[in-house]
Queue: 2 jobs
Job 1
Amino acid sequence: QVQLVESGGGLVQAGGSLRLSCAASGRTFSNYVMGWVRQAPGREREFVAAISRSGSSVRYADSVKGRFTSSRDNAKNTVYLQMNSLKPEDTAVYYCAASLGPFGTKFDYWGQGTQVTVSS
């Protein structure tokens, strides 16, 4: 089973940027579709982004398209989420996620999460 550890969350003003990182260990990283999901207080967990095993394909939720960019470095077993033009509604706990299944919006493994707070 893969272990996932996120870092890079914090407090930022609206319009600012943050970069999240997720370090994976325990299994062959390139076997996994990787992604990000988030959960705001009182809301269900929602899909943010997914990146294919090679990194050549990335899918985004409509709410973050054009503002967030996900990438991965298979040599470093790390996936990233660059978040620009942040909005207060982006405030949530962000979870790194992994899947051995097809490229999509469903995941099987999650990290412990990192808090992102965007102030207005």
Note: The chain has a mean pLDDT of 97.
Job 2
Amino acid sequence: QVQLVESGGGLVQAGGSLSLSCAASGNIFGINVMGWYRQAPGKQRELVATAAGGGRTNYADSVKGRFTISRDNAKNTVYLQMNSLKPEDTAVYYCNIHIIGWPQTYDYWGQGTQVTVSS
């Protein structure tokens, strides 16, 4: 089992910044990718950004140039710096760790943290 503890989030005006962090603990093994997803009311959960252990990152087009994901492998922690926030960024943000085992993969999720951007 893997536990994910998120922190950060909150309320900010449009154009402002927020940061999120997520610490993973437990049975973390092998190759893994940590990332952030979000879910706005009435919408499906969508990818925001991911970071592999080797440093490769991936971003949703909607956040490129505004959000930065980073991770500290020694601490099994992933961060998301969100700048130039827009009202459409309002959502519950979920931390995820995707562990590539064999013969199966494992996905664990944090409890979610609310990000609200006012116009």
Note: Residues 36 and 114 are 13 Å apart (CA to CA).
